[in-house]
Amino acid sequence: MIVCVPEGDDGKLYCRIVRERYGIETVPLPRQKLLEGQQCRLGVDLVRHCANNLMRKVSATMREWRVQNTVVILIHGIRTRALWQGEVRESLQSAGLVAIPTNYKKFDVFRFLLPFKRTKQAPISRVEEDVRAVRRKFPGAHISILAHSFGTFIIGKLLGNPEHQFDRIALCGSVLPIDFDFASAEGRFSEIINEVGCRDIWPAVAARIGWGYGPTGSFGFNRGNFVHDRKHAEHGHSGFLNGLFCKEFWIPYFCDGAKSNAGDVGAEPSKLVCFVDNVPLPLAKLLFWGSLLFLFGWPLWIGAAWTYRALLH
Prior knowledge:
The chain is an alpha/beta fold. It has 2 domains: about 30-60; about 70-280, Rossmann fold, CATH 3.40.50.1820. About 50% of the residues lie in helices and about 10% in strands. The chain contains 12 helices and 6 strands. The protein has helices at about 10-20, 30-35, 40-70, 85-95, 110-115, 120-135, 150-160, 200-210, 215-220, 245-255, 270-280, 280-310, and strands at about 70-75, 100, 140-150, 170, 190-195, 225-230. Strands 2-1-3-4-5-6 form a 6-stranded parallel beta sheet, sandwiched between helices. The longest helix has about 30 residues, at about 280-310.
């Protein structure tokens, strides 16, 4: 049905009432060509509008379906009860996404820094079981990941297992090595974004005094083939973990894959981050572990000294 309405404010008011009250689409069609005696394209313009409107509705329906079938798994870092997951989860779910937190309890710095794989296996296994449980509960869903700090190390381990396939992955406070082998997991994830905190010293510290870690949360991967780095000039290690950041950066990413908000493109790491990164690797390990041995090992030294004196006498 085609209804002609007058131009001007009266016509606009009529169209608005029709749209709001009856949900009927209104199509503005040019009449100037008719007045000028040119060829009329009224039918072509009407068909084009209907086709475009149908495609918009199909796209909106597909987007809504995809969002409702996307599950974002949250993975926290060390020395935390992961209370941030509640706020971020609420933000994600307000956008229509399903958000599932994981929890492997507080993981201490000592086990985090030790070079033995066995000390890190318990949290990795715990999260892996949670991921499997999500897949069983939401079969056919798009499984995305939001990982912070040691959680990025865990997701790196899961990417090494061919059993796991993920959609979009967001990393923040990342401690994955710069040369992490993403190529071996190619085809088992859609895309990865790495939020870089230019004031975040802890990934740089972990890379200096630990084993198997990298400063990618402080500097980025800077590789481009598999990971998109997004810098944030004023963010430290946990500056990302709030609802405001989630709404601005992660909801568009998980819903639409949008990375249009580029963050602070020209941002540079802080002087403190650069200082930590420039400490020679052997010296950093020697200073840290030597100090740790001295602080916590002095009872042993005293006991050994007393034993030695007793033997002499």
